[in-house]
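Quick board copy: two proteins, each given as sequence then tokens.
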Amino acid sequence: MDIKDRIKKVFVELLRVKPEELKEEARLYDSIGVDSTEMVEAVIALEKEFGVKLSQKEITKFSTLEEIEKVVSSRSA
């Protein structure tokens, strides 16, 4: 399972949505309706999944799965 799939899995489980509802370029806050609490929970889950540390500043910047993948990939390398 690659990084994209693992990130999607975190959001599918957290938000209880179908994988096809999560488009890489979709804005999480607007298109999917993620709220700030869910995003914090997602970040915690991503930190556990990938063994990376993400800052508060980064949490508020995430708006697409694509952006999350870039940050997680850079930290995992």
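And the next:
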Amino acid sequence: MKVSEILQVKGNILFTVTPDTPIAEAASVMEEKDIGSLVVMEFGDLVGILTFREVIRGINKNNGSLGQGTVRKYMDDHPLTVTPETEVNEVRRMMLEKHSRYLPVMDAKTLLGVISFYDVARAVLEAQSFENKMLKAYIRDWPVEESEE
């Protein structure tokens, strides 16, 4: 399975800010939209990512207050990225090794979306569930499981 398949299922809603966006405004957008990351774009280019991790670090550094700074002060300005062709197992390895919960998906310089740890876990679970159903269907007289939905 490739990143492109996860993006197809996830959809293409993408939330962005600029580096000059006030950090309090960015945090409000994250809360309002119930999202864990914002892609930071400047002049049409990806320049960083702001996740709840950076927001929490900022609050900690400011003694419990978010402060008056801009996104530029808090963002990760060297985020890991993946391409649509990146295999999901490679994404899982990258996320685990680098403790990254969100990865921008880039096609050359074009931002296609962001995938999260949750998106990857859901895709893997659904693929395994489908494979499991196909294998059970292949075996004759396999007892049918009741759905837990």
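Board note added afterward: The mean pLDDT is 87.
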